[in-house]
Write a structure and sequence with these properties.
The complex is a heterodimer of chains A (111) and B (831). With 111 residues, chain A is an all-beta fold. Chain A has strands at residues 7-14, 23-27, 33-37, 43-47, 61-63, 66-68, 75-77, 98-101, 104-110. Chain A has a three-stranded antiparallel β-sheet, with no helix packed on it. In chain A, a hairpin with a 2-residue loop joins strand 5 and strand 6 (66-68). Helix content of chain B is 34%, strand content 21%. The chains are: A mainly beta (111), B alpha/beta (831).
Chain lengths: 111, 831
Amino acid sequence: MNAISLMNWVDVGHTSDIPHQGARRIETDMGAIAVFCTVDHEYYAVMDKCPHKGGPLSEGIVHGRSIACPLHNWSISLQSGEAQGVDAGKGCAPPVPLKVENGQIFLSLPV
Amino acid sequence: MTPETASKERIVVIGAGMAGGRIVEEILKRKDSLFEISIIGAESLPTYDRIQLSPVLAGEKTFDQIVTHSQDWYDANGVKTHFGYWVQSVDRALKEVVLHDGQRIPYDKLILAMGSDPIRLPLPGADLHGVVAFRDLHDVDAMQAAAERGGEAVVIGGGLLGLEAAYGLAKRGMKATVIHLVDVLMERQLDEAAGRLLEKALLDRGVISVLNAQSEAILGETHVEGLRLKDGRVIPASLLVMAVGIRPHVEPAKSAGLVVERGIVVDDQMRTSDPDIFAVGECAQHRGQCYGLVAPIWEMCRTLADVLTAKNPDSAYLGTSLATRLKVSGVDLYSAGQFGGGEGCEDIVFRDPGRGVYKRIVIKDDRLVGTVLFGEAGDGGWYFDLMKKAESVAGIRDTLIFGQAVTHALAGQDPSDAVAAWPDATEVCGCNGVTKGQVVASICAGHTTLDGLRGACKASASCGSCTGIVESLLKVTLGDSFKAQTGPKSICKCTEHGHAVVRKAIIDLELKTIPDVMQALKWQTPDGCSSCRPALNYYLLCAWPRDYHDDPRSRFVNERNHANIQKDGTYSVVPRMWGGVTSAKELRAIADVVDKFDVPMVKVTGGQRLDLFGIKKQDLPAVWADLNAAGMVSGHAYAKALRTVKTCVGSEWCRFGTQDSTGLGIKLEQATWGSYMPHKFKMAVSGCPRNCAEATIKDFGVICVDSGYELHVGGNAGIHLRGTELLTKVATEAEALEWSMAFVQLYREDAWYLERTAPWIERVGLQFVKDGLAEPEMRAVLVARFLESQAVYQIDPWAEHAPKSEPAKVFSPMADLRNGVSQDQLKECAQ
């Protein structure tokens, strides 16, 4: 996903498809993307792969603007995708640009 | 005269490691306007605490947390830095240091703090890729990168550094093996008994020790592939770490013509053979001794700073007695002084192999001269202090081995009183040279926590062996207000409250939702974290089974998806087989599921059930439906709940069986399945004392005997093996069932979340459990509350839970954009 490739906003579903404080998975050719809904009904998307051992972040516990990986409990920022706390600086689950319009969720994906 | 820069004496420090950083700090602390200081460091990094690299490797700390003197700190103190430069030579005639780029830095006083280099064994293959030392951040980076690729690591050297390296690599997922030349690990710090315990403790953490092993050659083409030993054994390795020792770094002192033996020779004021050149730290040799630990560095720096600033020109360094503490999480190990004994020495040894505790103190002429502590090292600082004071211990000799608390208690003293009586000038922290007076002053200035004190006055901030004394000072100085912060540990960083406080508040204040608890107890985060939310969810459903609505978003993935997540993101599923009994119909249904969903593995579990591995999340609802259709329900193998009841065949088939153990097992399982608990819970029923169902390592175990049933509790075959303790003996099956439910409910209501029965009983004591269940009325109340909860929660999540908690559709992806969709996008762009 570099700046030169064409990006496009893709409609992936409605906000009501995502459980409050939960996540859903979007399958793509680049790998799965996890779309999250936080306690304050903010929506974020990151690649669904923990930088530590590849755990599915979409299955973690959402807290604040972070997700706890279900395999080994790394805490990942939903905004930057960066590992936090004691694991800070050790890896990143790349964030995917996301916007919400009229309740529909759009992800910016390469075409 | 005005204090112009030109008039200041110029001090140049070579080396920006722990010694270099510290000597600058010590000089500034004494007089900050007297000198113009420059520091030269070959690493292009600020000064960091090299002994903390082990926690960085193990992933327990980050680099930023171990920086002691940052670039900003040097800038703020007017110290000129030359990081990333190394010294080509020292021109003693012109009094100039020549850097590698030809730059010349003039000095009036030169301080050599160049540290040491790791020794690299001249083995064949030592230049292969993947062979590293364990010395600086680059080594740690290389080791971390290797660990990410996984595989096998070999560490040559079973000393402090080698073991910490091996532990760090094992913790990062590598298979780690330590090769050691002699037959005891850390033989310079440990005696044989402690060495064996350490070997065992490391093995439990995934580190294999190969002792009495001499390395012969490193194998591989371009990258290391293995290590061959003299005896012909080959140990595969994708990473090889040499941690066999250090050699004082003596260039360029040697080429400048200073007297150098093993290290740069210095006198008691750290002066080399040139009166304007000094040396401190690992590169120095003092009274024939070179040191590789931190405490001597700090002492040398203090002495030299006293001399240079003329604060105390006669200050002298007289050598350091050494104490060592291993930085491997969960392994408590301390060694100091002449632990091995010797002529005229007497040993006192305390050994409790059951708890993995070994202590040895060595006494000579009624004075303590050495100690090795393993398993319980909290008294290390106290022993070390007694050693340094060199006072007679004859009066406390008979209790000495039991440590400070016992010794002082038997002498009628509060341990804190002894500390309270110390004069202010007594040194508390040997590493950082902090006196009791300075610690107390910092406490009075408002630094009232251990961490706060470490930051403020550096006491207990290096090796940590004085932590106990520092805590005593906190207690003495703060009195009752200290007790508040040493209460039970908080659940997590979101709150200051411990589990007990939260559970009590939920009942007393009738809190019935997670947000209510967080609001009432002033949680510091908007919605908690992955530690506290699952705990609160459990406490609430235990307290209010009828009113509380379970929150799946505060449950770990396994309980949310009703299956066990595996390392590749697939799940495993265990159908319940009551008491371990199955039938042709059930086996056929399982076999059909295996075929239909391409299940790659079926395994018999330790609890006598069948586990189906490798099931995709989106297939879970269909798998459950098929298993349900054959009459099977979830085995809750994923839940903090009753897992299984293991049985033997008992009197029905076995010639020794005294009661129907299989039948009782089935009844127990039918009564208790589906009950959520603080942690997983396992039961077993053995038909006779031969104990084929291994009931004595279960949370609740029944041993059938001729006259009835022995009920056992608190067994655990987990990380720490623990046998059960006998709770009571009953005559009938009905009583065994009643006691089991009462026990489960007591555990549910009293234990902390994620506390299994074994640590719970160790915390509250078996007597608490016996007292809580002794009276028939008490048991009846507990059973009633248990049954009330079961009325709500004894449901099969496979049949009901998915549609109840969240729509089954969430088990499938929300959208699938593979193939097709991106083509559509292309078309849109083209139009």
